[in-house]
Each structure stands twice: as C-alpha cells, then as structure tokens.
Design a protein that fits this description.
The structure holds two protein chains of two kinds.
Chain A lengths: L2 E5 L2 E3 L5 E8 L8 E6 L5 E7 L6 E3 L7 E6 L4 E6 L8 E7 L4 E2 L3 E5 L1
Parallel strand pairs in A: 2-11
Antiparallel strand pairs in A: 1-3, 3-8, 4-5, 4-9, 5-6, 7-8, 9-10, 9-11
Chain B lengths: L8 E4 L5 E6 L5 H4 L2 E5 L6 E4 L13 E6 L2 E6 L8 E9 L4 E4 L3 E5 L1
Parallel strand pairs in B: 1-9
Antiparallel strand pairs in B: 2-6, 3-4, 3-7, 5-6, 7-8, 7-9
Classes of the chains: A mainly beta, B mainly beta.
C-alpha cells in the first residue's frame, strides 16, 4: 500500500523558518515528479512547488519564490520543503503529493502567527 | 497565477446525475487534460481520475470523466449521500510551468 507521511509542521512566528519532510513507500519514488500543495483554512487547494524525478528542475508558485525550497532524496524516498521568511498567509495544511499519480499524504499544519 | 474555473456549488437530488465542469485553456486542460480530486471535510484529497480520464481501481463506476477542448467534465450518476464533497480539478500548465487548480465545486446531495 502506498504511504505518504508528512511531518515538520507547527506554530512559527512571522519571519521564521520551518522544514517539512515527507516520507514515502510502496511506489517508485525516484521515477515520479513530486509536489507540495497547500490548503489554507476553509479555502481550496493551491499548488506550491514541484520537483522533477532526479531533482534537476524545480518549479514554484510566484508567492513563494525566493522563500521556499523544494528538494528530494531518492535514496530515502523522501521529499522536503524548506520554508523561510514565513508570512501569515502561508498558514495552511501542507500536502506532499504526486498529483498526476494521485498519491497524497494526510497533510501537516503550518501556522504562522 | 491564473487557475482553472469551476462552479462554486452544485446541488442535486438523491439519485440524480451531476455534471461538474472545469474550464482551462490550451496550455493546461487542453494540453494534457486534468485530474479530478474528491475531498471530504477534514480529509486529504483523493484521486478520482487521471489526466487521461481513466479511473483508478476502487473508484465507483458511477463516476466518469471526459475532456472536450479546454473543458474537463466529471459526471456522477445515481447520486448517493457519500458523494457530497468538494471536487477539484487540476492540470499542469506548460506556460506557467506549474500545476493549476480549480477553486473547487461543493456538491450537495439533497
């Protein structure tokens, strides 16, 4: 059974930093694009960042460019999101996902306050 | 970054048919199609259809998806109470080089 488990969320002050991790298993992690998607309280889904299979290319939504960094470790089947200069509007549940393959985690809550 | 357009809400009676639409452009929906996701309150999104309109195993055959040009559609027949949820479409946008999501449609089964 495919497993996608996020961790690292929590309460952080504006301007602070946080690193999210995503551990996966039971699928060929090194062969799929991976993404972070967030959902602010009571709002819809918003794509945050994606990374190619080998980590050679990374893509970000404009609102996080220069502040967030997506990375992956294929040897550990893990995905990461380093977040800095956090703002109140970054408050959301952050999901680790392979959007095209339909693998989603349960999400981790990040609160900036 | 511009997203896909979905009606905010749809209400149908139990047993009826609901068709949800997702409008994009030639750089996203018209390029590689859209995935469809279902989200119940408090739970993570769940894949209903891949971009090729194929259904993953375990998804009810009451659901079907299609694409015509820049518009993706999700049809649910014989609506059941458990179909009440938020439905999202998403597509890769080759111009924006990122995934775009629709605002979601809240489906109410009366």
């Amino acid at each position: 059974e495919v497993q996608v488990v996020e961790s690292g969320g929590g309460l952080v002050q504006p301007g602070g930093s946080l690193r999210l991790s995503c551990a996966t298993s039971a699928f060929s992690f090194s062969n799929v694009w991976m993404s972070w998607v967030r959902q602010a309280p009571g709002k819809g889904l918003e794509w945050v960042a994606s990374i190619k299979e080998d980590g050679s290319d990374k893509f970000y939504v404009d609102s996080v460019k220069g502040r967030f960094t997506i990375s992956r470790d294929n040897a550990k089947s893990s995905l990461y999101l380093q977040m800095s200069s956090l703002r109140a509007e970054d408050t959301a549940v952050y999901y680790c996902a392979s959007i095209s393959m339909g693998y989603w985690g349960q999400g981790t809550l990040v609160t900036v306050s | 970054q511009a997203g896909l357009t979905q009606p905010p809400s749809v209400s149908k009676d139990l047993g009826q048919t609901a068709t949800l639409t997702c409008t994009g452009n030639s750089n996203n929906v018209g390029y590689q199609g859209a995935v469809w996701l279902q989200q119940h309150q408090g739970l993570p999104p769940k894949l209903l259809f891949y971009r090729n309109n194929h259904r993953p195993s375990g998804i009810s055959e009451r659901l079907s998806a299609s694409t015509s040009g820049n518009i993706a559609s999700l049809t649910i027949i014989a609506l059941q109470p458990e179909d009440e949820a938020d439905y999202y479409c998403s597509a890769w946008d080759r111009s924006l080089t990122g995934w775009v999501f629709g605002g979601g449609t809240n489906l109410t089964v009366l």
